[in-house]
UniProtKB/TrEMBL annotation:
Annotated family: Belongs to the LytR/CpsA/Psr (LCP) family.
Pfam families reported for this sequence: LytR_cpsA_psr (PF03816)
Cell envelope-related transcriptional attenuator domain location: 87-243
Protein name: LCP family protein
InterPro entries reported in the protein's UniProt record: LytR/CpsA/Psr_CW_biosynth, LytR_CpsA_psr
Keywords: Membrane, Transmembrane, Transmembrane helix
Amino acid sequence: MDNYKKRSNKSSKKPKKKKIIILSVLAFILIIAAIGVGYAFSLLNKVDTVKVDKQDLDISKTIDEQYKDVTNIALFGIDATDNEAGRSDAIMILTIDSNRNNVRLSSIMRDSYVNIKGHGEDKITHAYAFGGPELAISTLNTNFDLNIKDFATVNFSSLPKVINDLDGIDINLTSGDLKYINKYIDSLNKVNNTSSPNIAGTGVHHLDGTQALAYCRIRYDGGDQERTQRQRTVLDALFQKIKATNKAKYPSILNELLPLIQTSLSSTDLLKLATNATSLSTLEQDRFPRDDNAKGSMIKGVFYETFDKDLTTKQIHDFIFEDKK
């Protein structure tokens, strides 16, 4: 079985490792919109652009024709820390709705039991390893009848730097978070030669980059369901912090963020999205499959998240295309 090898316009680069989705295209779209088209266009050359073959994405033509005002972008994160380089540790769909003037973010459970073209039934997280972003997008489109055409993948190591540049974010920590977060902080300090302090109690804390990354990595309190919620919590905190940040800081943030992003979106595409994003004011979030129709199942000794595919597809469509929950 051949694993995916990226086709990039920067072929001399080694494949990036330690990637996750927390710093998504959403953040720099907002920044680009604020700093102006001319300067933003020059900065966008820093992005690692990857071409995808639209013919291999299995885009739903019916859905694409019906919802022309809704743009969906697949967001993938690759976390090599679990010795599973190439698998998408986080999968989200960023929806930009120009008709309703809002942004919606859907998390897809990484253990979801789906059909992957050419590989049969498996965890959705494996699609990226089997065939890169093209197969991962195809898997989302074919299983949930979607019209995703583009993607973005973001380097895991970028999270602490950008959060520190923004002077931290506020996160409400539970007793479950506190039970594990300090172990992750200690591990990150050791790997990155940093000295972020441990956290002593529950409640709202102002987290630095290392502490926020540690929070995102917690997986033993509430499983993958709660970890995806923590990722969305941090993303929303970033979204709000960037909106409140002095625009004079935006160019320096982009200088740090853009080289860490791999995307099929061209500079022109990004600027178009940024222009549309100037009027977007809310970020709505959900997770699929939902708990009401999903359960953990052991199949041939392997854990999967099994679910009612027809019901989940309807719920995803209601949320993404109709803004209903």
